[in-house]
Amino acid sequence: MRRERKRGSEQCRNEKGSRRPAALLRAVFLPFLLFVLVSDAVQLLLTELSQRFSSGGGWAAHFPAEYPGEWQALVLMLAAGAGLGAARLAEELAARRGAGESFLRGFPEVSLRPRSPWRMREKLFSAALCVSLGLALNILLMQSGPVEAGTGKEAEGLVFRTVWPVAFLCYGLVCPLAEELIFRGVVYGRLRRAGGVSAAALVSAALFGVWHGNLRQGLYGFAMGLVLSLLYESSEELRIPVFLHGLTNTVIFTLGGLGVLQSAPEGIAGPGGSAVFLAAAGVSAAFLIREGMRGTGKGMKDRP
């Protein structure tokens, strides 16, 4: 009798182990795919509707033509909301069947549950790292010929010409929150709990780069996604990459709107400016690494 029970328990464990990869893939990539597909579908639908209404009259015809930057921001916000809604609905349905977990009931459910919150100087250096690196990468990509031929340049021009409050609402608040919930909260967070930091950071950063839709912005998205994943890992708070993502976007579109990033290759938009920002990012990263090495008693080693 005992042997049969032991054999049954071992068989149960083997079945659970065989189902774990499939469950992990479903938990990680199903929300991501739903977010991407629904967001893209909403963008295509709204773009098609704006083109059909362009021949008629009224605000539906004039608004996209006269305010293309604001229209693009509105489309992106609606698409992000629809994508998150679809991902949440799928997770709620899976949770009712006992085969999933909801990730939008609050940040603690997708965060790494910090035991020791970051001090102010760590937050300041992480902000300096992201903003400096973001500016340096934007300047370098603008100066590179092959990547500059990508389709992302036209979209960036619309971002820089958008009215600042609308741009801040879209690129500083709504889109960073939606993207961090998916790419850091879901993709990185769940892969991290199932495996190592490196694989989770690389996969989430790669998907974040692909999400940007073109080579130019994809390279930028991959680099920034990698940094945001590591800062999430270090801070153990999802609100940190959400804030840093929004802050970096805000600085970039503000300077772009002022014409600083599109100026001649002199000063901030030239090689000298990119070198200064890369150096600032390196100093900030070195400080954060040193602080992480000092705090060996907290963090990832103590996590289950």
Topology, please?
Blueprint: H1 2-53, H2 59-66, H3 68-96, H4 120-143, H5 145-148, H6 152-160, H7 164-194, H8 197-211, H9 215-235, H10 239-257, H11 271-294
Helix pairs in contact: 1-3, 1-7, 2-3, 3-6, 3-7, 4-9, 4-10, 4-11, 7-8, 7-10, 8-9, 9-10
Characterise the protein shown here:
- The chain has 304 residues and is mainly α.
- It is built from eleven helices and no strands.
- It has helices spanning 2-53, 59-66, 68-96, 120-143, 145-148, 152-160, 164-194, 197-211, 215-235, 239-257, 271-294.
In short:
With 304 residues, the chain is mainly alpha-helical. Helices cover 78% and strands 0% of the residues.
Name its key features.
304 residues, mainly alpha, 11 helices, disordered C terminus
Q: State the shape.
A: flat
Order of helices and strands: HHHHHHHHHHH
Euclidean distance between termini CA atoms? 34 Å
Number of helices: 11
Based on secondary structure, the structural category is mainly alpha
